[in-house]
Design goal:
Layout: H1 2-7, H2 14-45, H3 48-59, H4 61-75, H5 78-101, H6 107-135, H7 142-170, H8 173-193, H9 202-206, H10 209-222, H11 224-239, H12 243-253, H13 259-280, H14 286-307, H15 313-341, H16 347-376, H17 378-402
Helix pairs in contact: 2-3, 2-6, 2-7, 2-8, 3-6, 4-6, 4-10, 4-16, 5-6, 5-8, 6-16, 7-13, 7-15, 11-15, 11-16, 11-17, 12-13, 13-15, 14-15, 14-17, 15-16, 16-17
Length: 407
């Protein structure tokens, strides 16, 4: 019982109790919408190329807007921004629902609404991550709040796509968009009931966007702890988080299996990620997190190497569970360590760059990993990526161990 209380201790704060359930529900809705959009685009075009082009157009602005989103989070009142962002999310979901219901949903308005969603998400991601410091009264519980946020994401990643598939099979695509719209309403209501005070220094308020960007970059490059953690995350996401793109090839060419097996493999990774995020919610001291970070990366790399050496479906399932377990044991501690160290007036900007390291690298890593697989084969690709990341991880961990993380 004590362990359970420890795992959810951030819920003792009223603001977090309001924010957390709305966040969990809305994340599921977004995954339902993502599944529906992917299905709809392919159903309209029947072209993998057009589908890839649409998804590219919907995601590439994220790389350029997110750093600006971080500046906005630092410059303006985060509580008012949080409410505005939820309204915009709800408006986008409402427009998709109406267009789908009336039969007017076309590729061009899917792209426009997708880019609009990307613009909102680019502001929301660093904003939402920087808000956690405001919704827990004691910074000692900041790590627990971030871990529970990770749990939300992992639960949504498991439940959302499955729910989207069931709705598509049972009803139609309009219901998917309607469900997302309805699931966004609770967080809009709950956020408005929160009581948050976010004081900004006059210097930050008076800075231009470009000045804010420059200060954020300077802060990152001149602070070794932050630079190492961002490098850590960027390398890991570039080399290891590419596995969703590699697994279909691995399933077909190594395991000689079908889409059902692919679903089980990716599901095993999702279960591993969820398990890891719940365990990390208990262990949130800086000392433990640094150990968890290195342990997680070692486990994920070991599983990658083993995937390249085996041809058993059963062993592959176990190893994919390990990849998910290890990945969250890298991503969540990195975020907690970063937020523990950050100056609050630069939190949004650094977390914007952290988001780029997390999500922005995957677009390029797919091409990199795909090229290696084309040359040496998919099994050898897993081995090469695992060994390369392991070398980088131990080099960075050695530097990280020398630095003092006390503010």
């Amino acid at each position: 019982m004590n362990k359970f209380k420890e795992m959810f201790r951030a819920l003792k704060y009223r603001n977090f109790r309001l924010f957390f359930p709305g966040l969990a529900i809305s994340q599921i809705g977004i995954w339902v919408q993502n599944v529906a959009i992917s299905w709809l685009v392919y159903d309209i075009t029947r072209s993998p190329f057009i589908m890839g082009l649409v998804m590219f157009c919907n995601s590439i602005p994220f790389l350029f807007i997110t750093p600006i989103g971080g500046v906005i989070a630092d410059k303006f009142n985060r509580y008012k921004l949080l409410i505005t962002v939820q309204i915009l999310f709800t408006f986008q979901a409402f427009m998709l629902t109406v267009l789908s219901f009336t039969g007017n949903l076309r590729i061009w308005n899917i792209v426009i609404l997708g880019m609009f969603l990307t613009f909102i998400a680019a502001i929301d991601t660093p904003l939402r991550q920087s808000v956690f410091v405001l919704v827990v009264d004691d910074k000692k519980d900041l790590g627990n709040a971030i871990s529970l946020n990770s749990t939300c994401f992992n639960v949504a990643r498991l439940v959302g796509p499955a729910l989207g598939g069931i709705i598509l099979a049972t009803f139609n695509i309009t219901i998917c968009f309607l469900v997302n719209f309805l699931l966004l309403i609770p967080i809009l209501i709950l956020v408005q009931r929160m009581s948050i005070v976010d004081k900004k220094e006059e210097k930050i308020k008076n800075e231009t966007i470009l000045e804010g960007l420059k200060e954020g970059f300077d802060y990152c490059f001149k602070t070794p702890q932050i630079l190492i953690l961002l490098t850590y995350l960027g390398c890991y996401c570039f080399l290891i988080m590419v596995y969703p793109m590699l697994m279909p090839i691995y399933t077909a060419e190594v395991l000689h299996a079908n889409a059902d097996t692919l679903g089980f493999l990716l599901g095993a990774a999702g279960v591993g990620a969820l398990t890891s995020s719940l365990l990390i919610a208990i262990k949130t001291t800086t000392h433990n997190l640094r150990k968890i970070l290195l342990s997680g990366i070692t486990l994920a790399c070991f599983c990658f190497i083993c995937l390249g050496l085996i041809k058993s479906k059963f062993l592959a399932l176990i190893l994919m569970f390990g990849v998910g377990l290890g990945s969250t044991a890298v991503l969540t501690p990195e975020n907690i360590l970063l937020q523990t160290f950050l100056d609050d007036d630069k939190r949004g900007r650094v977390l914007g760059l952290n988001t780029i390291a997390f999500l922005g690298t995957t677009a390029f890593s797919s091409f990199f990993a795909g090229s290696i697989a084309h040359i040496v084969g998919i099994s050898n690709t897993f081995i090469i990526l695992g060994i390369l990341m392991l070398i980088i991880a131990f080099a960075l961990s050695f530097k990280l161990a020398k630095l003092n993380y006390k503010k």
